[in-house]
Every structure is written in structure tokens, then in C-alpha cells.
Amino acid sequence: MINIFEIRDRVLAGETTAKAEVEEALAKAQKNEDYNALVSLTPEYALQRAAEIDEKLARGENPGELAGVPFVVKDNFLAFGGPSTASSKMLANFSTPIQATAVKKLEDQGAIFIGKSNLDAFAHGGSTENSAFGVTKNAVDETRVAGGSSGGSAVITALDVVPFALGTDTGGSIRQPASFNGVYGIKPTYGTVSRFGVVAMASSTDTIGAFAKTAAETDLVMRIMSGKDTRDMMTVDDFYETKIGGEILTGNKKIGLISEFMDENVDAEVRARTLEYAGKLKKAGYEIVDVSLPMSKYSLAIYYIIIPAEVSSNLARYDGVRYGLRSGAAKTLGEVYGKSRDEGFEPENKRRIMIGSYVLSSGFYDAYYLQAQKARTLLVQEFNKLFEECDFLLGPVTPTPAFKIGENASDPIKMYLADIMTVPASIAGLPAISAPAGATESGLPIGVQLIGPMKSDADMIALAALVEKMETK
Q1: Over 70: is that where the pLDDT of 250 sits?
Q2: What integer is the mean pLDDT of 359-387?
């Protein structure tokens, strides 16, 4: 298993070169292309970056904390060296003039971007089946979905092509594929990482996070990416301070097990792995208490009103005029708009645009959108009350392990229900992490979800690291 720290230390010690690490990662990517986890590779750009790092080392300079470490980004990040498509036909040939802040921060520390991962087009979906580039297969069972929308990043990390990859999480798009593929996946506190240079989905819940195979690697990547950015007004002042190996800040030494996430509708093996994880936390000195989050039953309804409304607004910029696909069949300005969008958007994109336009329309705004925002406030208040009693909350990431490819494709409601345990933290802007918790009898990975209060990201990762350390003893 490749590791960020091992690669970096070997590069710094002269035991390997950045070029050799990049070449190995590119070779692994090509070897695993049947999974369809990547939509593009950037060998020329990556090898040029590797040469720059090797030259720095030759001059006795330190390239940074990620010296020579290759990584992959979800294809809704704008990054140099190749197209930035959001896995859509709309942006199939879009070459970006800017670099996402998160990518730049990592490269400033010596990391090397080698390619773009597949996703549900414009990050709309929970299976990576809605991509213009085809379906991404699960890293453990190729007949099953990778999860989504950041499925490609989860799979490429699980396959050991790169030690970490970036994703976005709006309602579970990092945590769910992390659970399905057996890796760590973190959604940080809203505003922790700049979204500048990332294709917008829903601006009130979009967050930037990462996939890795250990808690310590997750922690390092998040610390480097976090911090204020004047180009994203929602970023918060840098609060991130590594807690792994130190004292985890706690109040009551209590972990709340969310009862609504553990009912009979949840797969028995998922419940069993979650309870086993709770047992490890108890062994680590935490009291496990059952807690209730009644508003969680409304979270999907809240999410699928507010998020499509924001989606319809954010996708209005793709009109066939400024950039992106322009239909060759259009003869009038109205047809440029209509036909370009019809050809450029996937069915799930169109579904969300229509829902969003409906709930924002005259006569329905008060009945749907405004009511959903009020309900959102009640959910936030419930979370706040629970965190007066508990340090963190615990539950499954999803009701089931990875489902079969095509199993939910024709039933949008069934697909949306897979998000029922991830959307509450997203709506409330809270940090949440999917941590590996074992597997089913058939070998399918299962993750558990830790949810913390605002800005407890580092403590939450440190708690996951504590359990990880217990498992490796």
C-alpha cells in the first residue's frame, strides 16, 4: 500500500525521484483503466512538475510536505494540463485558464497532479453512473457501483494508484463512495477549504475534501488545503491544527449513536459493523449513548428542495453563448439556449434543473423553498442541542453496502434514499468523515460516519486515527 509519508520521505532522502513516482502512478492508472475511474491523464504536465521538484532537491531546496507525491482530482476541479469537463458533454473540450485554490495549495507543497477522476456529471448523482464518460466500477466488486458523485476519486485511491485524491461533497459525494470502496473520505466544516476553481453545484453546501487510506494522510491533506481565500467569501479563518498523536479535545467523553440511522431499514451487516466500531470507541474511553435526531427524517425532503434550487441557478451560466457546448443545430438565440442545454446536460442534470426551477417559481417559493429553509434551521438546532451532550455523533454512512450497477438507475427516489444518512450533516454545514469499519461476509466494504460540531475537523480525524491504531495493534 503506497503512503504519502513514505513517498515523500524517500523522495527527500534521494532514495527515489519525483519523476519515478509519477511514472509509476501513470503506469498503474493505465493498468487499471478497466475501472473507468479516470477521464483523463496529464503525463506531460505531471512529468514537467516532477522535473521541477527533482531540480529543487538537486539544489538542496525542500519542495514541501508533499514532495513528489502524485495525486488525482475530481474532474469538476479546474486544473492545468488537461480538460476540465465535470464529466459532462457541456464542458467536454473546456480548457481552464485558472487553477483551483485547493490544487494550487497542494502543488505548492510539492504534490504532483497526474489526472482527473470520473464523476456523475456536474456532481449530480450518488453512483457515478450519470457520467458522460460512462460508469465507474467499484474497486472491490466490478459489478457494483463506485458510489458518487466522487466515485472515480474513491476508486483510484482504493486501487492504490495514488495515495490520495480530491473530491467534492455536497450531500454525501465523498463519504458514500469512501464507504463503498473501503477508504477514508472527509467532508469538512463548510468553508474550511476554498471552492475557488471548482464547478459549483449547490453553493450553500458545497465542500472540498479528500480520500486517503489512513487517517494521518487525510489529516495532512486537509491541513494543507484549509484556510481563508479572498476568492471564496465563504471560507473561514484557518482553524485547522493537527491533533493526531495529541490530546483530542473532548467535553463529556460521549459519542452519540443516532437511533434513526440504526433502524430495521438499515442492512444488518451495516448495523453490525457500526456497533463494532462503537465498541472500539468505548474501549478507547468514550461512553456510547443513544441519541435521537427527529428532523433527520425530513432531511432528504429539505435537501432535494434547496439543492435543486441552487443547481438550477448555478447551471444557468451554461447557455451555449459564453463557453461550453453550443449546438450546431440552433438557428435562433432561443434555440442556442435550449438545444445546447438539451445536448450538453445528462438526464439527472435536467431533472434537478426542473425541480429547482419549479420550487423557486412564483406561487411555489413560499410553499417549498422557504419552508425547506425553515426546516433546515430546525435540523441545525437539533444538532446543536446534541453537541451540548456529546462530543461526536456516530452512525452508518449509507443504509447498504455498494449496490449493483443499474440496480437503482431507473428509480431516482431509490437512488436519492442512499443519501439519507449523509445529507443531514451537509445541510447543517458540519464536518463528517467516513472511516473504514470492515466488510460484509461477501467482502464489500462498509464505512461508519463520525459527525462533529463546527470546526472539530482535526479532532474528528484524530478520533478515527485512535480507532485505526487500535485495529492495527
Answers
A1: no
A2: 96
